[in-house]
Amino acid sequence: MSFDPSARKKKKVDCGKLCPEWECRQPGEFEGIWVIGEIEDGQIHEASLQMLTPARNIAEKLQTWIEGVLIGGDKEALEKAAKEVIYHGADKVRIIYHPDLKVYSADQYALVLSEEAKRVKPEVIFVAATLRGREFGPYIANTLRAGITADCTNFDVDMKTGDVVMIRPPFGAIMLAHIKTPTRRPQMGTARPNVFPIPERDESRTGEITWIELESIPQRRAFLEEVTIIPQTELPIEKADYLVSGGRGVATKELWSLLEELAKEMGAVVAGSRKAVDMGFIPHEKQVGQTGKTVKPKLYIAVGISGAAQHTFGIREAGIVVAINKDPEAPIFKASDYGIVGDAKEVLPLLIEEIKKLK
Amino acid sequence: MKIVLGIKWVPNTQAVRFDPKTGTLIREGVPSIVNPHDLDATEFALQLKDKFGGRITAVSMAPPAAIMGLQHVIGMGVDDGILASDRAFAGADTLATSYVLAKVIEKIGGVDLVVFGQETIDSSTAHIGAQVASWLKLPYVYYVEKLVNYDEKKKEIAFLRKLEDREEVYRIKLPAVISVAMHSQKPRPVRMSYKIMAKLENPIQIWTNKEMGLDPRCIGLKGSPTIVGGITWTPEVPRKKEVFQGDPKEAVKWLIDKLKEEGVIPF
User: Is there a single domain that holds both residue A92 and residue A199?
Assistant: First the structure.
């Protein structure tokens, strides 16, 4: 079944039934998909480009366009980012410019973007759930009194009504909730970085760029005073080809140092489960899983991780998954390619030895 | 400094089990706790109070049992609590929930800083802080780790937050809303004496919609634009599921061979 675009117009909202604090809007007036592009250090954020993948899928189903939306105060960076957004699949780009928007400020950016959304009326807004996206995304949604669904892993369209179905794992990740916003536009959804791939870059793609040069903007109340870049000593886990990941079963100093040694010998990056974060072995940005990161290494070695759905959710894109666990009943064995039932204390030193021999 | 602390009373997800046949949550016998990341927020708020004085009021929107959550943070040193609790609030999504919380904060009045945890362990949307800030038309900073300074005269406060590859210092004009990064604090233990005081002095108020007087179209299910249209299983990722059980030496040899076959040895 395909979507009949005239169905958009058929949706009618009874304004009397709405909360008086919500502006009454007829869904039929809204069309097009916005993808908000985050610019960091003058570059378009990869996570924003990734959102063009689900946007294309939904745009095709709804037979509509994708508009990349950029905000900032540096014309050169905006222009450059706009081109990237088009090369990666947006049909057009809207640039909201004011010299005082050079530096990001969550509520100010959100208020400016909300005003523009009220004027332009996109039916969908996608935001990458980066740390900043998690800050300004729900602020925009609320300012528009729109529905927003966080951390989606897939999107679909209800072909009868044209409602976007936001698919997300509720807690536990064992089931997926299909969330809709039938009477409210825009419909907003976010996805964490690396849940979707970046669409292919094609420099021959063209698209219209609309500059909105604002005369005034809401006053800034949060000022970025200082930025200190922390030099990265190793790859972030979402970019590593080899990951050695630990959980409850190796959450002792002794076992954890064995795990680190294995990673070192293999040239792998250390990651972990939520338990490893809770116990202070790794920072949150090294957590794999629904509430951490989705990773896609060539090889993922899970040591002492029981394999709750919450965790294995983060390794569904991984190449080969290896599990080492004492408990033969641990669910991790059902989510891995090769498993060893055994004590990490015994298995890890042997594995380290064998890896050394291979080098 | 007048601080409001937002907390959520959540099922202890560590203790939750799923019915393997239906995939639904088995809720019976699952203890509830204060969302652990809200304890980071509580600690953060308490340190502000320790340094600059003032008062912390914890707020929550939940069924009456959540009063135990408020007692818990009062046990840590929070001064009092307000529980917005009414059947009419039930079924709320994050928009409708943040609306009630924002109205509670408005009703308290004169608040300088609203502090939330980064996200909850049972839904992890991280929406509420931003949404409350939007309802109250206040600035919002997510992922705060540390106080940098507080200028009481200018009513400005500066915080440090750590993103993956950088640290940022934000100076914000008060009133403002912040969320505290998870695991960024060491929450202090509950003191029995505070908890006993909390029971004796009864510093927790329950506000139903009679007290709040909110339009029924703005709360609960009616005030929620999103609906859950359905639930499906998470598709299983096909894996080989080969398991070796036996002598560890043999096991490791077996594994190395498999990894060689797959071509995933790093060198």
Answer: yes
Q: State the count of interchain CB pairs (< 8 A) between A and B.
A: 278
Instruction: State how many domains chain A has.
Output: 2
Q: Which of B119, B162, B226 sits opposite A179 (nearest CB)?
A: B226
Fold of B2-218: Rossmann fold (3.40.50)
Q: Which of A2-6, A180-184, A264-268 has the lowest mean pLDDT?
A: A2-6
Nearest-Cα distance to chain A for B50, in Å, is: 24
Contact A341 B244 (CB under 8 A): yes
Instruction: Work out the minimum CA distance from B70 to partner chain A, whole angstroms.
Output: 23
Closest residue in chain B to residue A319, using alpha carbons only: B264
User: Hey, are the CB atoms on A354 and B256 less than 8 Å from each other?
Assistant: yes
Its ipTM equals 0.94
Please indicate, yes or no, whether residues A128 and A261 belong to a single structural domain of this protein.
no
Minimal Cβ distance to A176: which of B231, B240, B244: B231
Which of A150, A267, A343 is closest, CB to CB, to B125?
A: A150
Q: What is the mean pLDDT of residues A198-227?
A: 97
Q: Most B CBs within 10 Å: which of A161, A171, A242, A315, as the mutation test of the B interface?
A: A171
pLDDT at position B203, please? Answer: 93
Q: Tell if the CB–CB gap between B134 and A142 is shorter than 8 Å.
A: yes
Domain of A353, CATH number, reads 3.40.50.1220
CB-based contact, B164 to chain A, within 8 Å: yes
pLDDT single digits (tens) B54-73 = 999 999 999 999 999 999 99
Rounded to an integer, the average pLDDT of A107-117 is 98
- Tens-place pLDDT, residues A243-287: 999 999 999 999 999 999 999 999 999 999 999 999 999 998 999
Residues A18-45 pLDDT 10s: 999 999 999 999 999 999 999 999 999 9
Amino acid letter, residue B80: D
Closest CA to A235 of A193, A269, A284: A269
Does residue B102 sit at the A interface (CB-CB below 8 Å)?
no
- Put simply, the answer to whether B23 touches A174 (Cβ < 8 Å) is yes
Taking the domains of chain B in order of start, what are their residue ranges?
2-218
SS3 for chain A is CCCCCCHHHHCCCCHHHCCCCCCCCCHHHCCCEEEEECEECCEECHHHHHCHHHHHHHHHHHCCCEEEEEEECCHHHHHHHHHHHHHCCCCEEEEEECHHHCCCCHHHHHHHHHHHHHHHCCCEEEEECCHHHHHHHHHHHHHCCCEEECCCCEEEECCCCCCEEEEECCCCCCEEEEEECCCCCCEEEEECCCCCCCCCCCCCCCCEEEEEECCCCCCCCEEEEEEEECCCCCCCHHHCCEEEEECHHHCCHHHHHHHHHHHHHHCCEEEECHHHHHCCCCCHHHEECCCCECCCCCEEEEECCCCCHHHHHHHCCCCEEEEEECCCCCHHHHHCCEEEECCHHHHHHHHHHHHHHHC
